[in-house]
């Protein structure tokens, strides 16, 4: 199995959606090879006309893209491994949580680290990244990130649903980690390896949860060097 993953100028893997898949693969005990790509390399992964994003996996001659679709594919193609997305209503609730992660966690973090993220990228990726993100947010990266010291408290308050959940166990999924944890972890790992800005107070239960997640699977997350 091959995982195509983005790297920055330090050859650090930063994609939040890829980190979901990395921990899902580790949870299932699956071995894989990583192929590092830049944003500009993505079209070359497949010339068959399909629109691919990162992450993408190659397995048994098939390319699967999008983190949710990848994990569902792994659940179905490898039924002997632990299932991460349950069928039916339970899976739909997990999908809802993914939308919350994308809007609240990823959306909030983006407005706190976007210029740092740009600066961490390979120089070849920076013009594309700046142009695409400034078009998306309708302002410069500098303006988007400005005043973050005053705005970070609002982001921290938005994480209250996580704190309430973590009041019932060490992980969002309960006593053991599950895909809900991996969904949320990706955003915080994205920030950790892309920006030195401190997102979480050290006495926050979300910070303690993130530290536990970094240590999962023999420290898979912690092995990726943080930004300095």
How would you describe this structure to a colleague?
This protein has helices at residues 16-27, 67-77, 89-120, 126-137, 141-145, 148-158, 160-166, 179-194, 205-214, 216-219; strands spanning 2-6, 33-37, 56-59, 62-65. The protein is α+β, with helices and mostly antiparallel strands. The protein folds into two domains: 2-77, Glutaredoxin (3-Layer(aba) Sandwich); 89-218, Glutathione S-transferase Yfyf (Class Pi), Chain A, domain 2 (Up-down Bundle), CATH 1.20.1050.10. Helix 1 crosses helix 8 and helix 3 runs parallel beside helix 8. It starts with a strand and ends in a 9-residue tail after the last helix. The mean pLDDT is 96.
Throw out a few tags for this protein.
228 residues; alpha+beta; Glutaredoxin; Glutathione S-transferase Yfyf (Class Pi), Chain A, domain 2; 10 helices; 4 strands; 53% helix; globular
Question: What layout of secondary structure does this protein have?
Answer:
Layout: E1 2-6, H1 16-27, E2 33-37, E3 56-59, E4 62-65, H2 67-77, H3 89-120, H4 126-137, H5 141-145, H6 148-158, H7 160-166, H8 179-194, H9 205-214, H10 216-219
Helix pairs in contact: 1-2, 1-8, 3-6, 3-8
Number of strand elements: 4
Named at the architecture level, the CATH assignment of the largest domain is: Up-down Bundle
SSE succession: EHEEEHHHHHHHHH
The number of distinct structural domains comes to 2
* Strands ordered across the widest β-sheet: 2-1-3-4
Q: Please summarize the sheet with the most strands.
A: 4 strands, mixed
Q: Segments where pLDDT lies below 50 for 5+ residues?
A: none
SSE class: alpha+beta
Shape: globular
